[in-house]
Amino acid sequence: MKKWIGLAALTLMLAACNEDEAKNANADKEGNVVATTGQIADAVKVISGEKLNVTTLMGPGVDPHLYKATQGDMTTLENAEVIFYNGLHLEGQLQDIFDQMGKDKTVFAAAEVLKDEQLLVDEEDASLNDPHVWFDIMLWKEVVDGIGDTLVEEYPEYKKDFEKNEQDYLAKLDELAAYAKERVAEIPQEQRILVTAHDAFNYFGESLGFDVSGLQGLSTESEYGVKDVEDMVTYLVENNIKAIFVESSVSDKAMNAVIEGAKEKGHTVIIGGELFSDAMGAEGTEEGTYLGMYKHNINTIVDSLK
């Protein structure tokens, strides 16, 4: 009996030592974390709670495809202990910076935890994957889990808090997925055609049964021309589509040209609403969170198309 007590005591002592070592190893850390997009930052903030200082690099209305780091951004990134970004070439202008900084600190491409077979491929370039994975909630849960694992690895002293926060968040994502399916069921199948400014909603379409079409490609770096507008107008007329959608991080100039083109052919098309695609809403608003942003999109789409 004494032998077992001794082993138990030794185990507890070792566990305490390991915990102390983890705390000591992180004693010089101030908890400064940077995330590129609102979606990534929201997951980091929810999981970390009040334990870390989380800075979002790209705010509302900012297009990550075109974003270039300012001198202030460079200072923020250099002072960060951990950097989270989406990856899959979403923040293409920043990749060299991340590669360089990854030599000295943890720089985590959150969406790249997904397997190749889970990712959609760019129709124009088979070597590229669609980076907009947050629009499939089931995939996003895996991304969130990867973010949680990285936070625990970097700040093990908060392991229990982080894991609890993550599990609570994953449960809310399941509730959101159920809500989305219920609302989409209000739209007849033949009317589930989503036309947007650029191809950010393919994962959304795959997960909820929409035909999705964007005027521009996966990246807003791809330019559109007169023929693209004409083709889109023809598509709208042939499919009798009455509503199209603009995006908060993309100029509405192109979509207005599409509306005018359809009008010239005697077909009336309206703006069904503004969707959040690559950026979320303002901080402090419901749309400034992933849950609120996604719910806003669902409600806007369903109310316009049903």
Q: What can you tell me about this protein's structure?
A:
- The protein is of the alpha/beta class.
- The chain has two domains: 2-180, Rossmann fold, CATH 3.40.50.1980; 188-305, Nitrogenase molybdenum iron protein domain (Rossmann fold), CATH 3.40.50.
- The protein contains ten helices and ten strands.
- A four-stranded parallel sheet has the order 2-1-3-4, sandwiched between helices. It has a two-stranded antiparallel ribbon with strand order 5-6.
- The radius of gyration is 22 Å and the shape is globular.
- Residues 1-26 have low confidence and may be disordered.
Quantity of strands, as a count: 10
CATH class descriptor of the largest domain: Alpha Beta
What gap, in angstroms, lies between the N and C termini?
71 Å
Question: What is the total number of structural domains?
Answer: 2
Walk across the major sheet and give the strand order. 2-1-3-4
Name the CATH superfamily classification of the largest domain. Answer: Nitrogenase molybdenum iron protein domain
Strand and helix order: HEHEHEHEEEHHEHEHEHEH
Shape by Cα distribution: globular
User: Mean of residue pLDDT?
Assistant: 90
Helical segment count: 10
Largest sheet: 4 strands, parallel
Write the CATH fold name of the largest domain.
Rossmann fold
Q: What proportion of the residues form beta strands (DSSP E)?
A: 15-25%
- In terms of structural class, how would the helical and strand content be classed? alpha/beta
Tell me the CATH architecture of the largest domain. 3-Layer(aba) Sandwich
Rounded to an integer, what's the Rg over CA atoms? 22 Å
Helix proportion range: 40-55%
Oligomer: single chain
